[in-house]
Write a structure and sequence with these properties.
Blueprint (H helix, E strand, L loop, with lengths): L2 H11 L5 E4 L4 H10 L6 H12 L2 H7 E6 L1 H4 L9 H7 L3 E5 L4 E3 L7 E3 L5 H10 L4 E8 L8 H20 L3 E8 L7 H21 L8 E2 L16 H15 L6 E4 L6 H14 L5 E6 L1 H11 L6 H18 L7
Parallel strand pairs: 1-2, 1-10, 2-3, 3-6, 6-7, 7-8, 8-9, 9-10
Antiparallel strand pairs: 4-5
Bound molecules: 1,3-dihydroxyacetonephosphate.
Length: 334
């Protein structure tokens, strides 16, 4: 493990005015996104789409610090034969890789999941590192509902996250530790705060027990937010205040950076919330974005699978990247 390298990569991933592009949709998830815009999900179409993102020079050079890739993408080449990883590196962004194998039903815990993928992970990390990945991602999924989450599910997922993070650091790959509390339910913001605090406390205890070096990781949490189906939606300021309150209670200041997921928020909400948190400030970590949907929904709509729309899609991506880059410094205005 090279601690200096880990700390340097983590700092670069969360540097001011930049954030992470989560382009690591599994084959199943990208199919859903493509279905929504009427595009067939073939390897070539997936390549063309991701290539257009990585060739968005303005967005990539100025506002994207790193890109999370999926197994297929890290092995793909652009139309002209250049490896996609090289395209990303040429913009100054860092390639990363999703290494979890997805959330599967957790036995005896109805409605809850455990994220799988620890078996053989050391060998897979070696290969990904050889392919150019300098950071990795593992997502644990915690749902809020009646009687859930259970301690059983929270503990099991926190443990898997910590085991994953230790395996990454062993190979000087920065782990993005992503415990996502879903915003799918009808719960209010206070319930999200309670559950998020419970989950983060468990995650940091497990990270400690697995000897993960906090200086060499990035946390990717959900924001503290009301469930989508809740009639009581919180204001931007309330989301920002409650998210920071929970993070301050749970995240040691040794962690260099926090890169939020967007989780189904609208593009503009995701930007406004990040901006509001950075305006409040006074926290020991860099606060930035690691958005999938909130960066890609607009370019996907603009592209719709048509080569003549590539430039419009790149402009749409550049706009969202610029807005979120400003929000990462508390300088965004609507
Ligand atoms: P969203 O921003 O769409 O939530 O995706 C981020 C991510 O990487 C989820 O694992």
């Amino acid at each position: 493990m090279d601690l200096d390298q880990l700390a340097q990569t983590a700092a670069a991933m969360t540097q001011p005015s930049k954030g992470i592009l989560a382009a690591d949709e599994s084959t199943g998830t990208i199919k859903k996104r493509f279905d929504a815009i009427g595009v067939e999900s073939t390897p070539d179409n997936r390549r063309d789409y991701r290539e257009l993102l990585f060739r968005s020079t303005e967005a990539m050079q100025n506002h994207i610090s790193g890109v999370i890739l999926y197994d297929e993408t890290i092995r793909q080449t652009a139309k002209d034969g250049t490896p996609l990883v090289k395209l990303i590196e040429q913009t100054g962004a860092i390639p990363g890789i999703k290494v979890d194998l997805g959330a599967k039903p957790l036995p005896f815990c109805p409605g809850e999941t455990i994220t799988e993928g620890l078996d053989g992970l050391r060998e897979r990390l070696t290969e990904y590192s050889d392919l150019g990945a300098r950071f990795a991602k593992w997502r644990a999924v915690i749902d809020i509902g009646e009687g859930i989450p259970t301690w059983t599910a929270v503990k099991a997922n926190a443990h898997a996250l910590a085991r994953y993070a230790a395996l990454c650091q062993e190979q000087s790959v920065v782990p993005i530790v992503e415990p996502e509390v879903l915003m799918d339910g009808a719960h209010d913001i206070n319930r999200c705060a309670t559950v998020t605090e419970f989950v983060l406390k468990a995650v940091f205890q497990e990270l400690y027990e697995q000897r993960v070096v906090l200086e060499g990781m990035v946390l990717k949490p959900n924001m503290v937010i009301a469930g989508k189906k809740s009639p009581q939606q919180a204001s931007v300021d309330e989301v920002a205040e409650k998210t920071l309150k929970v993070l301050k209670r749970c995240v040691p200041s040794a962690v260099p950076g926090i890169a939020f997921l967007s989780g189904g928020q609208s593009d503009e909400e995701a930007t406004a919330h990040l901006d509001a948190m950075n305006r409040i400030g006074g926290v020991p970590w860099r606060l930035t974005f690691s958005y999938g949907r909130a960066l890609q929904a607009a370019p996907q709509r603009a592209w719709s699978g048509k080569p003549e729309n590539v430039e419009a899609a790149q402009r749409a991506f550049a706009h969202r990247a610029r807005m979120n880059g400003l929000a990462s410094m508390g300088q965004w205005t609507s």
